[in-house]
């Protein structure tokens, strides 16, 4: 027994010394977890990026081979899709009877930024209705942003949050409704992480978390200036609960034909964006600026049951207009990973706006970010 204790003490002493002097361990404790994890990714072509900073030249020489394997981009099965190509994931929702639901279909809409349509992300209208009613019962607050006063970049917009793992203590009737809404929020959170996060951030250790579900309401004429969700929120899953669209990505590239997107980097487009940011609260001026954009030449427009005529933007390309139904979601990626600097940066092409809507609009948003 005494010899066993001595052997155990010796084992742990040696193991501790080896760990402390291991280059991989030194790399892990000298930088944030996500940064270390990103350096040990295995690329599609078999290239493994090592964590040690002594490998600078070797890593640099491999950057060209792994550039497409962006850990902050879509998973491989979605990254491989071309614009307008679709994928049906092997996932079955247990929330409702299979006969009453439609299949979840994911279609690429833009190649930069990565934007996808998730058809039937919330498969039944009842589930969307439960989220709306629960949000109303919780109470919605006037929407603002951290960088501004409430309503300075949003107009006639209100929001609340639903914790997908909370419990309810209200009366029986409300409890049933809220419980159903929370279950829907939970499935939305888990689906977002399972379907839209790159494999390297999920295995062997899950490095991603999903914020509580945000429910937002826009009154008629409500809008949200051109903005970026931030690189920390590297994936946005935006679900249209009542089928009203109006989301516009002016710099999205919806075709591989460069001529079709020739104006996207032009100074004229940047000036349009600046003018929009300055005059959102003046509806007449906003209309005149919106009319200068051309969908197809200038990005991607999401249209719902309100119809295309609700927006003054002209349409040049049919592929640059996506028509959504209640329960559909738009998924877009806000960050890119620079291998040379080993850091994430904002993809400016992910800038988008919520255009003035002609009728009440309800949306639900899942944001994915790295764990602290």
> What is the distance, rounded to the nearest whole angstrom, between the alpha carbons of the first and last residues?
44 Å
Look up the CATH topology of the largest domain: Jelly Rolls
Q: How many structural domains in the coordinates?
A: 2
As a whole number of angstroms, the C-alpha radius of gyration is 23 Å
Percent in helix: 25-40%
**CATH architecture title of the largest domain:** Sandwich
CATH class of the largest domain: Mainly Beta
Order of helices and strands: HHHHHEEEHEEHEEEEHHEEEEEEEEE
SS class: alpha+beta
- Number of strand elements: 18
For the residues shown, what is the average pLDDT? 75
Find the CATH superfamily of the largest domain.
q2cbj1_9rhob like domain
Commentary on this structure:
The protein is an alpha+beta fold. The chain folds into two domains: 2-66, no CATH class; 76-370, Jelly Rolls, CATH 2.60.120. The chain has nine helices and 18 strands. The strands form three sheets. Strands 1, 2, 3, 4, 5, 6, 7, 8, 9, 11, 13, 14, 17 and 18 form a 14-stranded mixed sheet that branches. A hairpin with a 4-residue loop joins strand 15 (335-338) and strand 16 (343-346). The protein is globular, with a radius of gyration of 23 Å.
Comma- or semicolon-separated keywords:
alpha+beta; Jelly Rolls; 2 domains; two-stranded parallel sheet; 29% helix
């Amino acid at each position: 027994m005494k010899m066993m204790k001595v052997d155990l003490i010796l084992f742990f002493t040696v193991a501790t010394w080896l760990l402390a002097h291991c280059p991989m361990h030194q790399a892990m404790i000298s930088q944030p977890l996500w940064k270390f994890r990103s350096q040990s990714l295995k690329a599609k072509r078999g290239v493994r990026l090592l964590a040690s900073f002594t490998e600078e030249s070797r890593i640099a020489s491999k950057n060209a081979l792994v550039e497409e394997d962006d850990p902050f981009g879509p998973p491989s099965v979605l990254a491989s899709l071309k614009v307008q190509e679709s994928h049906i994931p092997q996932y079955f929702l247990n929330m409702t009877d299979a006969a009453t639901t439609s299949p979840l279909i994911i279609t690429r809409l833009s190649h930069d930024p990565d934007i996808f349509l998730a058809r039937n992300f919330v498969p039944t209208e009842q589930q969307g209705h439960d989220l709306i009613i629960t949000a109303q019962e919780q109470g919605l607050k006037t929407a603002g942003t951290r960088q501004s006063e409430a309503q300075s970049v949003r107009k006639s917009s209100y929001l609340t949050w639903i914790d997908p793992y909370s419990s309810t203590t209200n009366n029986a009737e409300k409890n049933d409704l809220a419980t159903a809404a929370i279950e829907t929020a939970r499935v939305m959170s888990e689906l977002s992480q399972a379907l839209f996060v790159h494999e390297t951030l999920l295995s062997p250790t899950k490095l991603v978390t999903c914020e509580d579900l945000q429910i937002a309401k826009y009154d008629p004429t409500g809008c949200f200036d051109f903005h970026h969700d931030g690189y920390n929120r590297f994936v946005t899953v935006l679900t249209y609960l009542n089928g009203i669209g109006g989301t516009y990505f002016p710099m999205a590239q919806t075709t591989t034909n460069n001529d079709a997107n020739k104006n996207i980097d032009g100074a004229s487009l940047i000036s349009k964006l600046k003018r929009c940011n300055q005059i959102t609260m003046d509806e007449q001026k906003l209309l005149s600026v919106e009319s200068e954009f051309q969908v197809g030449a200038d990005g991607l427009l999401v249209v719902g049951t309100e119809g295309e005529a609700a927006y003054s933007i002209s349409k040049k390309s049919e592929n640059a207009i996506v028509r959504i139904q209640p329960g559909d979601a738009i998924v877009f990626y806000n960050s890119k990973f620079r291998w040379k600097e080993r850091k994430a940066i904002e993809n400016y092409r992910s800038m988008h706006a919520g255009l003035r809507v002609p009728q009440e609009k309800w949306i639900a948003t899942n944001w994915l970010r790295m764990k602290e």
